[in-house]
């Protein structure tokens, strides 16, 4: 179940990060763009974590 949870959280973080990045771009808010890029990066890391858990088992 850890794989599913990590990948679900990853998708949510990537989506929210993309929105923040786009809004920051549209409004010229560099801080919001940076937050968005960071959140997308966290989502990518969570996705990798989920993939590892899927490959090795959720007990890691």
Helices, strands, pairings?
Layout: H1 2-27, H2 30-56
Whole-angstrom Rg: 14 Å
Helix content: over 70%
What is the mean pLDDT?
92
- How large is the share of residues in beta strands? under 5%
* Total helical elements: 2
**Total number of domains:** 1
Structural class call reads: mainly alpha
Q: How are helices and strands ordered from N to C?
A: HH
Strand count, sense and closure of the main sheet?
none
The overall strand count is 0
Give your account of this protein's structure:
By secondary structure, the chain is an all-alpha fold. It has one domain (2-56). Helices cover 88% and strands 0% of the residues. The chain contains 2 helices and no strands. Helix 1 runs antiparallel to helix 2. The chain is elongated. The mean pLDDT is 92.
Short description:
This protein has 60 residues and is an all-alpha fold. It has one domain. The protein has two helices and no strands.
């Amino acid at each position: 179940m850890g794989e599913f949870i990590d990948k679900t959280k990853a998708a949510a973080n990537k989506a929210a990060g993309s929105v923040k990045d786009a809004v920051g771009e549209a409004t010229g808010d560099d801080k919001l763009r940076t937050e968005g890029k960071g959140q997308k990066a966290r989502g990518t890391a969570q996705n990798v974590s989920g993939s590892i858990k899927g490959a090795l088992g959720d007990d890691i």
